[in-house]
Automatic annotation (TrEMBL):
SMART domains registered for this protein in UniProt: HTH_XRE (SM00530)
PANTHER family reported in the protein's UniProt record: HTH-TYPE TRANSCRIPTIONAL REGULATOR, HTH-TYPE TRANSCRIPTIONAL REGULATOR SUTR
Domain named HTH cro/C1-type: residues: 24-78
Molecular function terms from GO: DNA binding; DNA-binding transcription factor activity
Name of the protein in question: XRE family transcriptional regulator
Keywords linked to the UniProt accession: DNA-binding, Transcription, Transcription regulation
InterPro entries named in the record: Cro/C1-type_HTH, Cupin_2, Lambda_DNA-bd_dom_sf, RmlC-like_jellyroll, RmlC_Cupin_sf, TransReg_Diox_bact_type
GO cellular component, one term: cytosol
Length: 198
């Protein structure tokens, strides 16, 4: 039996990178931030910012989180899937894949609110042997995770938790953390991230 995996094409990656480049330039201009100032605030090299704005770099989720926090916006704002009340429908082809694992796993940003006090909705799929690691989010960030298939290995600092299909977990994720597929079957989970403005 052949397993179908959702692989991000070069065209998909280029579209996401173009959106990130345009939005990053727009927010920098709107907030009157030089490359040097954004580099200082986000702890990201100026050279990397130049590469991102020129669409020559594929920024990680962790890097997007740092840039968003430094500019007082959400990751959803940067990739242009932020809600615009009262109702903003986002079609499937506008939900960007922002991480892809070596075996075909993906992290797709489904929707998010605008601004620094943000909420994001994600869908993750990891295959056996895949892991995603994060250096941690700003203080008081909370993630709600619900496992729909497989078993999630959630590591926060040095503690490891196993969450089976059908179970949910609430995690404070300002510390370094990771998600991994535990076992021999693919893992799927939805995640809501709430980051307070500081």
């Amino acid at each position: 039996m052949t397993k179908k995996v959702n692989i991000m094409t070069d065209a998909d990656a280029a579209a996401v990178n173009n959106a990130i480049s345009a939005r990053l330039k727009g927010y920098r201009s709107e907030k009157k931030l030089s490359l040097d100032e954004l580099s200082r605030r986000a702890g990201v090299s100026k050279g990397m910012l130049v590469e991102i704005e020129a669409c020559r770099a594929n920024p990680s989720i962790a890097l997007l989180c740092r840039l968003a926090a430094a500019m007082g916006v959400s990751v959803a704002d940067i990739v242009d899937v932020a809600s615009q009340p009262p109702v903003h429908m986002i079609p499937p082809d506008a939900m960007p894949v922002l991480w892809q694992g070596e075996r075909g796993g993906t992290a797709r940003l489904l929707a998010g609110t605008s601004g620094s006090n943000m909420v994001e909705l994600w869908h993750w799929q990891l295959f056996p042997g895949e892991r995603f690691s994060s250096p941690g989010h700003p203080r008081e960030t909370t993630e709600l995770l619900h496992v729909t298939a497989g078993t999630l290995e959630l590591k926060v600092d040095d503690e490891i938790f196993y969450i089976a299909a059908g179970c949910s977990v609430v995690a404070a994720t300002e510390a370094p953390h990771s998600y991994a597929c535990a076992g021999d079957t693919p893992l799927a989970f939805t995640m809501t991230v709430h980051e307070k403005a500081h």
